[in-house]
Amino acid sequence: RRFSIGLTGGIGSGKTTVADMFAARGASLVDTDLIAHQLTAPGGAAIAQIHAQFGASFLTAEGAMDRARMREYVFSEAGAKARLEAILHPLIRIETERAAQAATGAYLIFVVPLLVESRGWRERVSRVLVVDCAEQTQVRRVMSRSGLPEAQVRAIMAAQATREQRLAAADDVIDNDGDAQSLAPQVDRLHAHYLSLAAQAAA
Ligand code: ATP
After folding, report:
1. Could you tell me the CATH superfamily of domain 1-27+106-203?
2. 11 C-alpha vs ligand 1 centroid, how far in Å?
3. So where are the chain's domains?
4. How far is ligand 1, taken at its centre, from the CA of residue 108, in Å?
């Protein structure tokens, strides 16, 4: 199996920003959020099962999963989250492995927002990379990007692993409390490290 990194971090921590910087240096990205979105977009592989299990009222006129409706439902209805995940997780797994097979970069980075919270990911990757910042920084970034009220951002964060739990799972950490410029030297250093580990793994 190829050398791979599982990149994670809380909402608004900077996962996408950091992942794009590794990609610019030659890593291949497999974004599990993007895959989940594609599965639930019009014509996506999960749509037929969502229709069968939840009904047409959970689809938009275009035939995508109605994300707002589904989010509200899984928050309020016991068991609904597990039913949705039972549909999505096997499909995400298949598509993720397909994307990994097709990747041609120097090494692989799986971007997995809920890596620490989900089963199986830590065993799947060679190393876990956590993008870390203070909770107050997360709140500020998400509020300014999305316009969500602070209470709602805090509620999303409360449903995720804590900063401490994430750091405990980390092999490597990128500190993203500073400005964007402070990321480049950290990414450069880790990229060099990952290239050498990937070369060792391939030897
Ligand atoms: P999500 O979990 O919500 O998808 P994410 O972890 O992928 O978020 P990003 O989308 O990379 O995080 O960053 C969140 C927001 O904060 C973006 O608007 C991004 O431009 C901004 N941001 C990220 N890092 C920094 C930084 N070091 N300085 C200033 N702004 C930043």
Report:
1. P-loop containing nucleotide triphosphate hydrolases (3.40.50.300)
2. 8
3. 1-27+106-203, 35-104
4. 21
Residue 1 is predicted with a pLDDT of 77
Q: What is the ipTM for the molecules in this complex?
A: 0.97
Profile the chain (203 residues) by mean pLDDT over runs of 10 residues: 94 97 98 96 97 97 96 92 94 96 96 93 96 97 94 93 97 96 97 97 88
Cα of 163 to ligand 1 centre, how many Å? 16
Q: How far is CA 190 from CA 55, 91, 117, 128, 149, in A?
A: 46, 31, 24, 12, 35
Residues with CB under 6 A from ligand 1: 9, 11-17, 113, 141, 145, 176, 179-180
The number of C-alpha atoms within 13 Å of 187 and in the hemisphere containing its C-beta is 23
